[in-house]
Each structure stands twice: as structure tokens, then as C-alpha cells.
Amino acid sequence: MKKSATHLRWLPGAVLAVLLGLAASDQAQAGVRCYANWSEAAPVVVRERLVSARDIHQLVRKSSLAKVVRITLCRTGQGYKYKLVVFGPDGKARKLILDARRPVVR
Questions:
Q1: Of all helices (H) and strands (E), which one includes residue 35?
Q2: Distance CA 82, CA 56 (A)
Q3: End-to-end CA distance of the chain
Q4: By the 8 A CB rule, do 39 and 60 touch?
Q5: How many CA atoms are closer than 13 Å to the CA of 50, on its beta-carbon side?
Q6: Which of 11, 74, 82, 92 has its CA 20 to 30 A from that of 50?
Q7: Helix (H), strand (E), coil (C) string for 59-98
């Protein structure tokens, strides 16, 4: 029994580390609001005069020959951003973050 108890001494510290990591992650995300549902995002795009998701899709496709998999609109401390998941010409998935007012694909 003593051997098992010795091996579990690290467990409370590990649990605490995970909980602290989750708390830090939540704090880092505070102030960021993402719209996964486009019925909620569409009025924001119109109200804030943002570039439409359709235009973002076309811009990315034309400029980088990437296939857009997902577009999410997020509000951050720096304004609105589109977070995209795309498949590049090499077939690899990657993430792009574009300004929703003045998008530039690099």
C-alpha cells in the first residue's frame, strides 16, 4: 500500500496545475465573443459594416487557392475578426485570422 500512496503524491499537484491552466485559459478568452451561429452573426456584420463572410470566402479562395472549411466571427479587444480554418494547396489544414473590416490574406 505504501508504494501506491507514494506514486500518487503527484496527483494533487497535477490536478491543481490543470485547474489553474483552465482558469488562465478562461481569463485569456474573457472579452472575446465568437458567433458560431450565423443567424446571430449576420446582424452584427450588417450593424458594424463588416466585410461579409461570403466576400471573405471568395477573397481567401482567390488569393491563396485555399478551400475554406469554417468561418467564425469573433469580437476581440481589437475589433472584429474572422477566424477561419482552411485547407491549403498542399492539403494541410491551417488557421487564418483576418480583420473583419479590412481583411488581408498573406
A1: strand 33-35
A2: 8
A3: 59
A4: no
A5: 23
A6: 92
A7: HHHHHHCCEEEEEEEEEECCEEEEEEEEECCCCCEEEEEE
Of 2, 70, 4, whose CA–CA distance to 36 is shortest?
70
Over residues 85-102, the pLDDT tens digits come to 999 888 899 999 999 999
Residue/partner pairs of 66-70 with CB below 8 Å, 24 or more apart: 69/93
> How long is the chain?
106
pTM above 0.70, yes or no: no
Cα–Cα dist 54/60, whole Å: 10
**How is residue 79 written as a grid cell?**
475589433
Measured CA angle at 71 (ends 65, 72), to 5 deg: 155
Single-letter code of the amino acid located at 16: L
Amino acid of residue 20: L
Query: pLDDT tens digits, residue range 35-50?
Result: 989 999 999 999 999 9
